[in-house]
Amino acid sequence: MEHPPRGFTLLELLVVILLVGIMATLAMPSFLAFGERNVRSAAVNQLQSTLAFARNTAITQRIEVTVCPTDAERKTCTKQWSGPILVVAGDKQKSLDADDIVRVFPATQRAKITYSRNWKRIKFTPLGHNSGYNGRFFVCPGKAEKGSELVLSQLGRLRAKEQPYDCSSP
Protein backbone atom coordinates (compact mmCIF):
# COMPACT_ATOMS: atom_id res chain seq x y z
CA MET A 1 0.00 0.00 0.00
CA GLU A 2 1.48 3.28 -1.14
CA HIS A 3 1.21 6.42 1.03
CA PRO A 4 0.31 9.75 -0.63
CA PRO A 5 3.20 12.23 -0.67
CA ARG A 6 3.32 14.64 2.28
CA GLY A 7 4.32 18.30 2.18
CA PHE A 8 3.80 21.23 -0.14
CA THR A 9 4.74 21.69 -3.71
CA LEU A 10 7.01 24.53 -4.71
CA LEU A 11 4.13 26.29 -6.44
CA GLU A 12 1.94 26.17 -3.31
CA LEU A 13 4.77 27.55 -1.20
CA LEU A 14 5.43 30.42 -3.62
CA VAL A 15 1.72 31.38 -3.67
CA VAL A 16 1.60 31.51 0.14
CA ILE A 17 4.78 33.62 0.32
CA LEU A 18 3.37 35.98 -2.30
CA LEU A 19 0.09 36.40 -0.37
CA VAL A 20 1.92 37.06 2.91
CA GLY A 21 4.10 39.66 1.17
CA ILE A 22 1.08 41.46 -0.30
CA MET A 23 -0.70 41.49 3.07
CA ALA A 24 2.41 42.84 4.82
CA THR A 25 2.79 45.58 2.20
CA LEU A 26 -0.82 46.67 2.68
CA ALA A 27 -0.60 46.62 6.48
CA MET A 28 2.69 48.53 6.83
CA PRO A 29 1.36 52.13 6.54
CA SER A 30 -1.31 51.59 9.18
CA PHE A 31 1.23 49.88 11.43
CA LEU A 32 3.60 52.86 11.15
CA ALA A 33 0.74 55.28 11.88
CA PHE A 34 -0.13 53.21 14.96
CA GLY A 35 3.46 53.56 16.19
CA GLU A 36 3.42 57.35 15.69
CA ARG A 37 0.11 57.67 17.56
CA ASN A 38 1.51 55.55 20.38
CA VAL A 39 4.66 57.70 20.68
CA ARG A 40 2.56 60.89 20.64
CA SER A 41 0.16 59.57 23.29
CA ALA A 42 3.02 58.47 25.56
CA ALA A 43 4.73 61.88 25.31
CA VAL A 44 1.46 63.76 25.95
CA ASN A 45 0.63 61.57 28.95
CA GLN A 46 4.10 62.00 30.42
CA LEU A 47 3.96 65.80 30.05
CA GLN A 48 0.47 65.93 31.56
CA SER A 49 1.61 63.76 34.48
CA THR A 50 4.67 65.92 35.07
CA LEU A 51 2.75 69.20 35.18
CA ALA A 52 -0.13 67.72 37.23
CA PHE A 53 2.37 66.35 39.76
CA ALA A 54 4.11 69.73 40.06
CA ARG A 55 0.83 71.62 40.45
CA ASN A 56 -0.43 69.14 43.04
CA THR A 57 2.84 69.39 44.97
CA ALA A 58 2.61 73.19 45.02
CA ILE A 59 -0.97 73.09 46.33
CA THR A 60 -0.56 70.34 48.93
CA GLN A 61 2.76 71.56 50.34
CA ARG A 62 1.86 75.26 49.95
CA ILE A 63 5.14 76.14 48.28
CA GLU A 64 6.27 77.44 44.91
CA VAL A 65 7.29 74.63 42.57
CA THR A 66 9.40 74.98 39.45
CA VAL A 67 9.23 72.64 36.47
CA CYS A 68 12.12 72.78 34.04
CA PRO A 69 13.94 70.62 31.54
CA THR A 70 17.49 69.88 32.59
CA ASP A 71 20.84 68.76 31.30
CA ALA A 72 22.48 65.41 32.05
CA GLU A 73 24.17 66.73 35.21
CA ARG A 74 20.88 68.16 36.57
CA LYS A 75 22.59 71.36 37.61
CA THR A 76 20.75 73.91 35.47
CA CYS A 77 17.53 74.42 33.51
CA THR A 78 17.58 74.29 29.70
CA LYS A 79 15.02 74.92 26.96
CA GLN A 80 15.03 71.31 25.71
CA TRP A 81 11.60 70.09 26.84
CA SER A 82 12.18 66.67 25.23
CA GLY A 83 14.94 65.93 27.75
CA PRO A 84 14.63 64.99 31.41
CA ILE A 85 12.30 67.28 33.35
CA LEU A 86 12.80 68.29 36.97
CA VAL A 87 10.19 69.21 39.55
CA VAL A 88 11.96 71.46 42.03
CA ALA A 89 10.80 72.98 45.32
CA GLY A 90 11.05 76.77 45.19
CA ASP A 91 11.57 79.29 42.40
CA LYS A 92 14.76 77.87 40.92
CA GLN A 93 16.18 78.45 37.48
CA LYS A 94 19.93 78.78 37.40
CA SER A 95 21.62 76.73 40.12
CA LEU A 96 19.82 73.63 41.28
CA ASP A 97 20.67 71.75 44.45
CA ALA A 98 20.04 68.03 44.73
CA ASP A 99 18.11 68.69 47.97
CA ASP A 100 15.61 70.91 46.13
CA ILE A 101 14.72 68.30 43.48
CA VAL A 102 11.37 66.72 44.26
CA ARG A 103 11.23 64.38 41.27
CA VAL A 104 12.95 63.71 37.95
CA PHE A 105 10.86 62.67 34.96
CA PRO A 106 12.81 60.83 32.23
CA ALA A 107 13.42 62.16 28.74
CA THR A 108 10.69 61.67 26.17
CA GLN A 109 11.57 58.92 23.74
CA ARG A 110 11.23 59.55 19.97
CA ALA A 111 9.16 62.73 20.34
CA LYS A 112 10.10 66.41 20.18
CA ILE A 113 8.41 68.74 22.68
CA THR A 114 8.63 72.51 22.29
CA TYR A 115 7.18 75.29 24.43
CA SER A 116 5.64 78.33 22.73
CA ARG A 117 7.05 80.81 25.24
CA ASN A 118 10.57 79.43 24.81
CA TRP A 119 11.06 79.64 28.59
CA LYS A 120 13.37 77.50 30.64
CA ARG A 121 10.87 76.93 33.42
CA ILE A 122 7.28 76.97 34.54
CA LYS A 123 6.52 78.03 38.08
CA PHE A 124 3.43 77.02 40.06
CA THR A 125 2.31 79.14 43.02
CA PRO A 126 0.96 77.65 46.27
CA LEU A 127 -2.54 78.15 44.81
CA GLY A 128 -1.60 76.00 41.80
CA HIS A 129 -1.55 78.92 39.39
CA ASN A 130 1.00 79.17 36.62
CA SER A 131 3.09 82.30 36.81
CA GLY A 132 3.01 84.30 33.62
CA TYR A 133 0.82 83.77 30.60
CA ASN A 134 -0.94 80.95 28.84
CA GLY A 135 1.55 78.73 27.05
CA ARG A 136 1.37 75.94 24.52
CA PHE A 137 3.36 72.73 24.24
CA PHE A 138 3.76 71.09 20.84
CA VAL A 139 4.41 67.35 20.76
CA CYS A 140 5.69 65.91 17.46
CA PRO A 141 6.66 62.23 17.25
CA GLY A 142 9.74 61.58 15.12
CA LYS A 143 9.12 62.50 11.49
CA ALA A 144 5.32 62.56 11.76
CA GLU A 145 3.31 65.29 10.05
CA LYS A 146 0.66 65.47 12.79
CA GLY A 147 1.24 66.04 16.47
CA SER A 148 -0.56 67.26 19.57
CA GLU A 149 -0.92 70.70 21.09
CA LEU A 150 -1.35 71.16 24.84
CA VAL A 151 -2.45 74.48 26.35
CA LEU A 152 -1.31 75.46 29.86
CA SER A 153 -3.63 78.09 31.35
CA GLN A 154 -2.73 80.72 33.94
CA LEU A 155 -4.70 78.67 36.46
CA GLY A 156 -2.19 75.86 35.97
CA ARG A 157 -4.49 73.50 34.12
CA LEU A 158 -3.33 71.65 31.05
CA ARG A 159 -5.68 70.66 28.24
CA ALA A 160 -5.16 69.00 24.88
CA LYS A 161 -6.53 70.69 21.79
CA GLU A 162 -8.87 68.62 19.65
CA GLN A 163 -7.31 69.50 16.30
CA PRO A 164 -4.00 67.85 15.46
CA TYR A 165 -0.96 70.11 15.31
CA ASP A 166 0.86 70.41 11.99
CA CYS A 167 4.43 69.36 12.81
CA SER A 168 5.74 70.44 9.41
CA SER A 169 5.13 74.13 10.24
CA PRO A 170 8.00 75.98 11.93
From TrEMBL:
Residue intervals passing through the bilayer: 13-34
Residue stretches making up the General secretion pathway GspH domain: 43-156
Keywords from the UniProt entry: Cell inner membrane, Cell membrane, Membrane, Methylation, Transmembrane, Transmembrane helix
Gene3D superfamilies: minor pseudopilin epsh domain
Keyword Disulfide bond: no
Location within or outside the cell: Cell inner membrane
Pfam families: GspH (PF12019), N_methyl (PF07963)
Membrane topology: Single-pass membrane protein
PROSITE patterns assigned to the protein according to its UniProt record, in alphabetical order: PROKAR_NTER_METHYL
SUPFAM superfamilies per the UniProt record, alphabetical: Pili subunits
NCBIfam families the UniProt entry points to: IV_pilin_GFxxxE (TIGR02532)
Entries under PANTHER family matching the protein: GENERAL SECRETION PATHWAY PROTEIN G
Family according to the record: Belongs to the GSP H family.
Name this protein carries in UniProt: Type II secretion system protein H
